[in-house]
Each structure stands twice: as C-alpha cells, then as structure tokens.
Protein 1
Amino acid sequence: MKKNWLIVIVGLFMVMGLAACGSSNEDASQDDGANSEKTLVMGTSADYPPFEYIDSAQGEEIIGFDVDIANYIADELGYNVEIKDMDFSGLITALSSERVDFVLAGMTPTEERKENVDFSDIYYSANHMIVSSTDNEMVKPEDLDGAKVGVQLGSIQEDKANELKESGIEMEIITLNRIPELIQELKSGRYDAIIIEDTVAKGYLESNDDLTGENLPNTEEAGSAVAFPKDSELTKEFNEVIKKMKDNGKMDEFIEKWFGQDTVE
Ligand code: ARG
C-alpha cells in the first residue's frame, strides 16, 4: 500500500515538472522578446507513408517526408513546429478556422481547394494508381466496371473515381478516412480495388505480395503543396525556402531518403 502511494506521489511530481516545462515554453512563445521562437501548428493526416505516418516499431512520433520538410522550413524561418494529426477530410476546415497555421499532408492544390485556402509552390508530384489484388487484377479504368472501389474521403482520388463513374464506368465508390483501412479492406477482399497515389502505393506494394498496382492513364499529375489559411504571410516565406531547398539539393536528399529516387517534379 505504502509503495503504491509513493509511486503516485513521484508520478505527480513528474507531471508537475512536465507541466512547468510546458507552461514556461508557452510563455516564451507568447512573449515578444527578441529571440523567443514562435510555434507554428501543422495540420496533417498521418496515415500516408512515406509522407506522414507513425512507424509503431520506431515509436509514437509522426515521421516522414512532409515532417522533414516542415522541420527544415521552420528551422530556416526560426519557428518551432507542433504537429496536429486529424482526418484528411478535416484539414481544409482546420485551416480556414485557423486551428492550424499550415497543412503538409501530400495535399494537391486543386481549384476547388483554392477557393478556401492558399497553396505554396508544388514540392513533389505523383500520379493516381489503381491497386488491386493479384488474383483479381484491375489495371485499366474499364476493369473497374462493376467493382467495389475504395478511396480516401475528401481526396482528389475520390474526385477521380467520381469522374470515372460519370464517364460511364459503373462502380460502387466507398470512402474511408484512413489509407491503412483502405488497404485492409482490399486485402480482405471486401473491396475489388482502391485508387491512391503511386508514391504511397509503392510502399504498400513492396510489403504486400498479394497486391498489384497500375497507374491510371491520361491523368494530370497530382502534385503536393503546403496549404495555408487565405492571405497568410507564411505562403511567401515558405515558398522562398522551398525554392532554396530545390536549389541546394535538400529536397532531392529528402526525396531520396523517403522515396528512394531523386527526381524533383
Ligand atoms: N494528394 C491527394 C489529395 O490531395 C491525397 C492526399 C492524402 N494525404 C494524406 N495525408 N492522407 O487529395
């Protein structure tokens, strides 16, 4: 009994200690003293390896290509970054309600999104891919006729699937919030195919022999850019660093690290 109390008390002290650190940091960021760094809140959807994900074998932290880019840019500009994980479909609202300062989530700058948020220059590009199981391969859009097809809610792959459907390919489109859930549904045979980005599909194809992927032909590239609340001053600041990273080889270094290839755009 005594021992338990001791643990509780020691625990309490530790929590108090942490809280003290937390609040002094906050104070520092609110205080406009010369060298106090400001913290920017980054919104993301950490279901998207290798852009942003949690590798549970390594720990609880969100890691990935986008995280490296965010840290590099913030570092150059003298900010700290705090990451907020949420569903991809909630990111635009989080920006317009200013709950986050920017979004890095492999997000494509579409005309529709541009009505509500601003985008940086594109930092990496990708294409759409149909992923299906090797014993029921679907390689062309026509193969999706009559199929159950999964896409991420609020993604441009959802738009793409709707477009295909409107063009006459009769498929049932199912939307889910998280990419690993889509993969699970596909592997278990509940879906016939999913449409995701080739850069993300690649990793899943490597670790799942029972899956196969084929790029959707004739589609415009799906580039990724940083998103900001409308008229944010950060857009210009970030663009300058993105340009610098493309020039000084840092972007290629991160691409090589996370995608194992070194082509920009
Ligand atoms: N590039 C696609 C889009 O902008 C998908 C991005 C999904 N990102 C994520 N972190 N799940 O719609």
Protein 2
Amino acid sequence: MKRSERAEQDRAKEIKKQKLLHQLGGQQLPYLTPKDEGFQLLWKTKYTNLILREANKIPFDLHVQMQRAFSSLLQCGCFFRDLVNIRGKDVFTAVSRVIIGNPGCTYKYLNTRLFPIPWQTILSKITYSQEEIAMSCHALKEFNNYLCSIVGNDVVRSEDSKVIGEGLENNLVQPDLANSCESEKGIEDPLTSVEEPPVQKQSRHKAVGALFNVTLLNYMDPKTMPYLKEEPYFGMGPMAVGWHHDESLVAGSPVAVYNYTSSDPGTISDKKACWRAGLKVAWDIDTPGLVLPLQPGDCYFMMDDLNMTHQHCVLVGDEPRFSSTHRVAEEGDSTLDYVFGRTEEAVSNLLKGSTLSNASLNSTEITILKKTEEIHNEVEFEWLRQYWFQGRRYAKFTDWWCKPIEKLEEDWKQLELMTLLMLKAVEDDRWSSEKRRDAIGSLLPILTERQELRQHWKNRCQSKLAKSLPADDRPMCHPYWEEGDLSMPLPFDLQSTIAHLEEIVTSTGIEEHL
Ligand code: OGA
Ligand code: MN
C-alpha cells in the first residue's frame, strides 16, 4: 500500500474512532473478567477463536529455555523502544522490542520495517556477536517449532475435521479461569477445570501451511514508565500496548503469545496485579470486552480471523514482563529474496558493463522506465531508509544483514544511474512530443514521491526524539549526499529535476496548440 493510501486509511479510522468515542459520551463500556458471571459464555460465543494454553500444559524445559532467553536478550541490550510513525507522528513504543525470525524475513508494523535477528535454520549458518544471543535465538526457534507443532499439526491433519477437533482438545484449552488472577498458583499448579475448546472446524482450513516465521518480543518494566495511557473505552486500566490488530500477517493466520513475568523469588504469593490481555470486537460497542489474566508461562492463541474481527491490547501488571508473539508474517513483498528479485529485474535494463561516464539503457519503453523507477522507490524507502533509520542496532548482534544491505545499496546506486539515463532519454530529439508527454506523465509522480519521501525520512531523522537516542541506535539518514558529489549521478534533492520535467510538459503542451 502506498504511503498516501495508508495515511488516508489511518485518517478514516481516526474519524471512526472519534465517532465511537463521541457516541459513548464519556460513558464506559462493560467488560468481563473471569470473576464476572457470564465470562465463560462471552468467551465461548464472542471470542471463540481466543484460546489459552496454561503454563502447566507446556513442557518444563521449554519454559526454562524461554525464560533464560528473555533475560539474556535483555542483558545483551537487544530490546529497543521502536521509533514508529502513527498517523504521521513519530512516537516511541511504550514496550521495548526485538524481533527474531527466519533469515531474510522482515516484518512491518506502524510504518516501520523490522529486520529480525535470524534464527538458525537447516539451510543457514548464522554468526552472532555473543554466545548468549545464539542460545537465545535457538531457544526461540525451538519454542517456535513447538508452537508450530501444536497449531500446525492440527492444521496439517485438517483433511479430516474430526481429527482436528480431537487434536485441539488435547492441545489447546479454554479452561475455567475464575479467580485465576487472584489465585496463588505457580507454573506447576494443575488446572482447576478443563472445558471443551472452541473449534470452528471449517475455518481452520484457512491456515493450512501457515507456520510462524517471526516472533516479536516485548519487554516492559512498569516501574520505569513515568506515564502509561489508560484504556479509553472500558476503563480496563493502564496499557502497555494500545488497541490494535496485528499488521502484515497472512490473512487468517494464527498468532501465539507466550507470557512471562519475572517476579522476584519469594514475592510470587504476594497479591500483585497481573498482566492481562484485553480483547474487543472491532468497531462494536454492544459486545462487552474481555479481559484474560495471564500467569507466568501461559500462552494464548488468536486463531483464524480473530486478529481481523477483533482488536487486542496489553494491560500492565505490577512486575516486569516479557512476551514472545509468534506470527506468520506476510512474505509477498517483505523478504530479501523478493527485493533482490525486484532489483535484478530493474537492473537488467542497464546495458552490461555500464559505468557512470559510459552507460545506456537496453530499452526506453515507457512501461519499462516506469517500472524501474517504481522499484527504485521501493528499494530506497522500503528497505534502505527503513534499515538505516533504526541506526546500527542490527549490526550489533549479528553481521547477517550487513552484506545484503550493502548489495541493495549497490543496486540502488545503479538505479540512480538509470534515472539519469531515463531523464536523458525523455529529452531525446527523436521522441515525438506525444511520447515525451506520456513518458513524463508516468514518471513525474514517481519522482515527486521520491522527493517527498526523501524529505520525510530526512525530517524523521532530525526529529527531537530521533536525536535523543544514543549514537549507536540513532536514526541515520542514509543514503545521503551533498550537492556536487561527483560519485553520484543525480542530486539528493530532486526539486530542480522535477521542475525541469514540468517545464517540458508545459512547453510541449504549448507547442501542440501553436
Ligand atoms: C503485540 C501484542 C501481546 C502481548 O506485541 O502486538 O499484541 O500479550 N502483544 O504481549
Ligand atoms: Mn498484537
């Protein structure tokens, strides 16, 4: 989706939200917790695809590995508050995050493309800067495999829907949670009661082949947060993550969340406020909200289209808390293989062996020129500027992204040269004025977008928030070059280039009328 389209969508959403809040007129909507009558019924009927797997149903060694991974990653300084862009405004996320996943996968949320620390796969050899990071990535991958096996196996067996039902009964449960928040049970406590799981047999087919390819980890210590936003519709309390749908996921794919609070030993039995997941039906003020208390080691699943039909938020408890949110990131245009394929396609129109002083295009067909310029924008703004906006943080933990990003920058430099050649081509005397006008008509919007986005990213890098970060993590406006840099075919600022093209269109327009 284009930035302008997204901005438009965001605005429409904001208006809808304001309208809802206005309808409420300051009143708060009802929501149910396990202590309330009707909680189970509400869960079963309106939150069917929310499934909880309590800590004691998860193998002990996996808990140990996960918890070790969380604290190692924290100690290694891997968690960062992302400087994201919401409705055109830059803000730091309240939670600190790190993303880990399949090599070459990226994940985009809130206009920010995250570049995961890769976990090891059969085909990949990853070098990590520290052994602890290697171990942590391995642990997360193991846990990811486990999650895939409980969600995926049932899906794999989905040819026979009866089996799915049985499989899920054994694996994922929606237990009686009454008083679980107040109860003093630790990880090993048995379930008080187990109910039939909610299974929508047909719709499970949708997730066939869906395997979690990334996990976005969250961390927050509420004691260090001077201000947390209150949940606005229901009065559920302060939030760590506000109401949202998870973005950039394969439609209908599941999301699995592992929850862990690191309580000091000895304080477990204290009556501390626990962390909770809040859920509501999107754009619906009639269905009560649902609050699901989470114990350390609990895992919850948003199955099928729950993430689309509902929104969720995270409500803070007293203690520092980690979560690992396993997702099926949409891979269409967000893998390294994809973007390399795109640049290869574009660069194939540059005559082999072209140099800055001696270069030419194979074809000057308008559709080809247009596609090249579109790919140019995509590589520059969806990859290079996104990557460098997050500073040097990725290179701190693994060198995995360095080479691919370098290669993308080399390709992008060729694309700069191709833009120069394109600009020369449209001024070719042999072109009819009609062809010239057509070409400029197709190319001008792309160059204008390039100019706008360059200014946008430059401004983002110069914001107060960006500058408040330590040097290593500070957003970098890269690539950037000064006027008159002879190593670059074109200037960074395209204002005069664009003005020149506009002039050509106007003057050829006049010519035609004479
Ligand atoms: C998220 C999210 C849920 C949780 O990071 O998108 O919704 O329980 N997290 O941490
Ligand atoms: Mn989420």
